[in-house]
Amino acid sequence: MFEEPGEKLKKLAAILFWGITIVSVILAFTLGIERVHYTSSASGLVYTTTVFHDVLFFSLLLGGPLGAYILGLVLSGFGELVENSERAAEDLHVRSR
Predict the structure, then answer these.
(1) Tally of CA atoms within 13 A in the half-sphere of 53 that contains its CB
(2) Using an 8 Å Cβ cutoff, are 31 and 61 in contact?
(3) HSE toward the beta carbon, residue 43, CA cutoff 13 A
(4) Do 17 and 10 contact (CB within 8 A), yes or no?
(5) Looking at residue 47, what is its pLDDT?
(6) DSSP category for residue 40
(7) Are 35 and 50 in contact (CB under 8 A)?
């Protein structure tokens, strides 16, 4: 379970990046474009209109993948750091013999 943590962190970074990106794009279209139903009290007719929430739409569409990319960079960089420290520890162990 705890073998090769650096490689697992890099895979987790890729999975989180794509997962957050997909979810944020779906949420941008789901929450950013909303159908609103109005009922007229006089005639009893139901009117449907579409409301576009531009700030919410663009913040989810652009901010979600950007935040996921930054998170992925940090997590992947930490995984690389763990791998490099494992290699350095192995080199020191071999040289000390």
Answers:
(1) 15
(2) no
(3) 5
(4) no
(5) 82
(6) -
(7) yes
